[in-house]
């Protein structure tokens, strides 16, 4: 009887080992991951979103033309977009517009949108946040 029990335990252990060592296949499309090398020293010279959001935006004539309300990254685009609030006073009459973040330049620690005026930004289509 001891021999029979030992054989059952041995057979069970072999079956469990075989099941665990077989490759696992997931459903759906195979996934690949490609890593990008990032230089931490270069990255450290960038601007954190927590510091960018809320920043005033100036034009080339050093006139304030808006404020960065948010940064948005879409699934299909590689360039983030900046949502600017323009016009209004204390949130009343404020209009939101979107510009590619690469249109903004940093000059003397200021966010600059070359060629922009309050009027040109107000003429852009309204941006509405999805709920």
Walk me through what this model shows.
With 131 residues, the chain is an alpha+beta fold. 25% of the residues lie in helices and 23% in strands. The chain contains four helices and six strands; from the N terminus they run αααββββββα. It has helices at residues 2-21, 40-43, 49-52, 118-122; strands at residues 56-58, 64-72, 81-86, 95-100, 105-107, 110-112. Strand 1 and strand 2 (64-72) form a beta hairpin.
List the helices and strands and how they pair.
Layout: H1 2-21, H2 40-43, H3 49-52, E1 56-58, E2 64-72, E3 81-86, E4 95-100, E5 105-107, E6 110-112, H4 118-122
Parallel strand pairs: 1-6
Antiparallel strand pairs: 1-2, 2-3, 3-4, 5-6
Descriptors:
131 residues; alpha+beta; 23% strand; 25% helix
Helix content: 25-40%
- Outline, from the CA principal axes? elongated
SSE run: HHHEEEEEEH
- Major pleated sheet: 6 strands, mixed
Report strand order across the widest sheet.
4-3-2-1-6-5
Q: Alpha-carbon distance between the termini?
A: 69 Å
Q: What is the radius of gyration computed over CA atoms, rounded to a whole number of angstroms?
A: 28 Å
- Structural category is alpha+beta
Tally the helices: 4
Q: Which regions have little confidence, pLDDT < 50, spanning 5+ residues?
A: none
Give the percentage of residues in beta strands. Answer: 15-25%
Overall average residue pLDDT: 80
Number of strands: 6
């Amino acid at each position: 009887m001891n021999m029979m029990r030992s054989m059952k335990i041995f057979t069970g252990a072999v079956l469990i080992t075989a099941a665990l060592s077989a490759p696992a296949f997931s459903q759906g499309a195979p996934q690949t991951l490609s890593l990008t090398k990032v230089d931490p020293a270069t990255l450290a010279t960038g601007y954190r979103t927590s510091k960018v959001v809320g920043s005033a935006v100036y034009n080339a004539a050093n006139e304030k033309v808006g404020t960065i309300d948010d940064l948005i990254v879409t699934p299909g685009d590689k360039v983030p977009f900046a949502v600017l609030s323009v016009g209004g006073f204390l949130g009343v009459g404020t209009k939101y517009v979107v510009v590619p973040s690469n249109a903004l330049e940093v000059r003397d620690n200021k966010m600059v949108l070359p060629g922009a005026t309050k009027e040109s930004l107000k003429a852009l289509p309204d941006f509405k946040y999805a709920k």
